[in-house]
Specification:
This is DUF2851 family protein. The protein has 425 residues and is α/β, with parallel strands linked by helices. The protein contains 18 helices and seven strands. It folds into two domains: 110 residues, no CATH class; 199 residues, no CATH class. A hairpin with a 2-residue loop joins β4 and β5. α4 packs across α14.
Length: 425
């Protein structure tokens, strides 16, 4: 038994209320259970109820046992002075207010609806290899699953919107600068994303804007400020880049390169930070007013066109400055551009729409064009419920579901888990 189950029981009043009595035999009538508090302090604010003939308005605290009140030292915390009812699974001790009167207590263990309690135990004590509801998941109604995934996707967009809002504030509401920083982060992927974002944050975007017509200069600044031009290599191209960076570093007062340089270890050559930064420079040079172009794009194919870039000749035969290879195509793959759509373009379009208070939701059409991502989480959900998950919106929602609900056992906050507890799945 977990306390969040009692929160659920109290919030949705899943217990027999005819009639109700406190553990001391006082008549109890609940007018409103209060608002669930997710921060510190009592569990429910602004409840309204009647104890015997007295109507009370105040807070409700919930525990597994009454004695947990003293275990958590609520008796010395003024935040709990306005608690009007103590709701517990099992009453094992009277709780006294500061005026030495007994705090009214409601014990739940004998009044919770049996079906609710039975389903709770089924969910949390079932044999599982992966998630709590895996043996029940195939039986969830398709419409309920799709509706919950849609809500989860917007929840995920809101999480990403927090970063975008922060970047927008840092950039004086310059959406072009925000796009550059988001692209930098996502060109770095998981391994170098933070380093690339740090790089983008430490270069005034006006410098990037001024250099966006010159591939060589932009390349020199990105590679140099990332700390990737600090060694000495025999390559003539390396020395030209390094000299150019030193000149531009002084000209624009760039300061020192970032302290933690991007890494090459555990990366395929196509994802080496040298290649990804050169590709990023090519994108910025290829399309002036990149943000405007992205905002106007309505389809995946239009995004593909924007990011259809090539790299300078040197990089067609190099992944780094140490050695060369036979000429290879170093254009951005469609799979990589799909990742940019998922993690940069669509979240940016969502944030822009929300910022401008528009109701244009074409970003949903765009994400629906992107194929379902392939990873262990998605594959496991597909095994449980085949043929229902079809595009990147679904795969992003499944990642949100697994990380934020399944893994931390927040089943009662999950729409599917809540339906299972109610027996309505």
């Amino acid at each position: 038994m977990k306390e969040d189950f009692l929160h659920y029981i109290w919030q949705f009043q899943k217990f027999d209320q005819s009639p109700l009595e406190t553990v001391n035999g006082e008549f109890l009538e609940i007018y409103h259970p209060g608002t669930h508090n997710l921060d510190s302090g009592p569990d429910f604010f602004a409840a309204k109820l009647k104890v015997d003939t007295q109507v009370w308005a105040g807070n409700v605290e919930i525990h597994l046992r009454s004695s947990d009140w003293y275990l958590h030292q609520h008796e010395i915390d003024s935040a709990y002075d306005n608690v009007i009812l103590h709701v517990v699974w099992e009453h094992d001790a009277d709780i006294y207010r500061k005026d030495e009167s007994i705090l009214p207590t409601l014990e739940l263990k004998n009044i919770v609806y049996p079906e609710i309690q039975h389903n709770y135990y089924r969910l949390f004590t079932s044999d599982k290899d992966w998630i709590n509801c895996e043996q029940f998941f195939p039986n969830f109604n398709d419409f309920d699953v799709e509706s919950w995934l849609t809500r989860l996707y917007f929840e995920r967009l809101e999480t990403k919107n927090s970063l975008i809002t922060e970047l927008l504030n840092q950039s004086n509401n310059d959406w072009e600068a925000v796009l550059f920083k988001l692209l930098a982060k996502n060109f770095g992927l998981n391994r170098n994303g933070d380093a690339f974002l740090n790089l983008a944050n430490t270069i005034d975007f006006e410098v990037i804007r001024k250099l966006s017509k010159d591939q060589f200069q932009l390349e020199a600044v990105l590679l140099g400020h990332a700390g990737l031009l600090e060694d000495n290599f025999e390559s003539d191209y390396f020395h030209r880049l390094k000299n150019e960076y030193l000149y531009l570093q002084k000209k624009f007062s760039l300061g020192n390169a970032i302290e933690t340089s991007p890494v090459f270890s555990r990366l395929r050559p196509d994802n080496f930070p040298t290649i990804r930064l050169v590709q990023l420079a090519s994108v910025l040079v290829e399309t002036s007013s990149l943000f405007s172009a992205v905002i106007k794009a309505k389809t995946k194919q239009e995004i593909y066109t924007i990011f259809s870039i090539d790299v300078p000749e040197f990089w067609k035969t190099h992944y780094n400055f140490r050695s060369n290879h036979k000429p290879r195509n170093k254009k951005l793959s469609k799979n990589f551009i799909d990742l940019l759509i998922i993690n940069t373009i669509v979240p940016l379009l969502y944030a822009f729409s929300k910022n401008r208070l528009t109701e244009n939701e074409y970003y949903l059409d765009l994400i629906a064009e992107v194929s379902l991502e392939k990873n262990t989480t998605v594959q496991n959900f597909q095994t449980l419920k085949p043929r229902i998950f079809k595009n990147a919106m679904h795969s992003q929602s499944l990642l949100q579901l697994k990380k934020n609900y399944c893994d931390p056992n927040r089943c009662l906050k999950c729409a599917l888990g809540a339906k299972f507890i109610k027996g309505k799945y």
